[in-house]
Amino acid sequence: MANRLLLHERHVAAGARFVTVCDWDLPADYGDASAEYAAARRGVALADRGDWGVLDVTGRDRATFLHALLSNEIKALQPGQGCTAALLDVHGKVQVILTVWVLEDRIRLVMPRGLTAKISQALDHYLFSEKASFTDASDETALLMLLGPEAPATIERLTGVRPPVPAWSNLTATLGETTVRLVTGGGETGGLEVWVACAATHGPRVWDALVGGGAWPLGAAAYESLRIEAGTPLFGHDVDESVLLPEIPLERLASYTKGCYPGQEVVVRIRDRGHVNRRLTGLVLEGEVVPPHGAEVLADGAAVGRVTSATRSLGLGHPIALAFVRREHAEPDRAVTVRVGEGTVPARVAALPFAR
User: Fold this and answer.
1) Are residues 54 and 116 in contact, defined by beta-carbon separation less than 8 angstroms?
2) pTM for the whole thing?
3) What domains lie within the chain, and their CATH numbers?
4) What's the rounded Cα separation, in Å, for the pair 309 and 111?
5) What is the pLDDT of residues 298-329, one digit of tens each?
């Protein structure tokens, strides 16, 4: 049986149609995915991120410990700041992509929920004399996301606090009688985003306040269209442990000045003296067929890649996909085909993001 979100009953009451994604029952839509998409692009929408988990790192050495392990700058971040980062193995392959929220008394790592236990164990493996400890706070935390051009103004109207501008900056506020943490998103949907985190017991109350404040509930169909249009890979779906960090077009994931971390030598060597054999890119497909996850990408009759995510873009009006494609075939506008069933679908390589 699939896992249910903390706010499952709220979604049922809102008329959600559900779909199972990565062992979670998620609202696919609330009756009109196109209207939900339009709200996110032109107004304000609200997504339940309860399928994401929270790993809290405490202890006096938490910042220096994580700085030595993650691909981005951690030690210099002050409370109220944050970043995206990856944990790599010694071969430069991605173990997880996560976001880092620096709070006053802890560093909060946010990632797909099924990975928190694994990443806690992986971090603990590196722990020797450092004072740091790990707590999976997923069950105690509700995670919501406001998205769209009106998201900052909506949360300011409801809390009296304007979210900070830099990505992953965060602060506390009060929504009604509930203490929440507001976190400025990193643009994974291609627009403005404000995460709203609170105690799990207050999640339904916060959802109601945000919907009452004008946010349009947004399901997985519209969210996937936004995410793929923005060219944002999802760990566990687009990216797994076979992927080298430089194969992902996310420069903000890594610092080249911070010093050593696991896999850093491989990342720098590829940057300075070599290249990757494949990279994550976009595909624009002809017709109306949406290829499945893992569909082969073909060029001159030979397999040159595979699709990782695909959808019918609600903004562009035709199917698009993210795919790993061999370097020599990954130039924008390159003609390829995608195998679907017994046939193939014509496609062209596209630069990411699809929509700006």
Assistant:
1) yes
2) 0.96
3) 3-50+139-229 (3.30.1360.120), 277-356 (2.40.30.110)
4) 18
5) 999 999 999 999 999 999 999 999 999 999 99
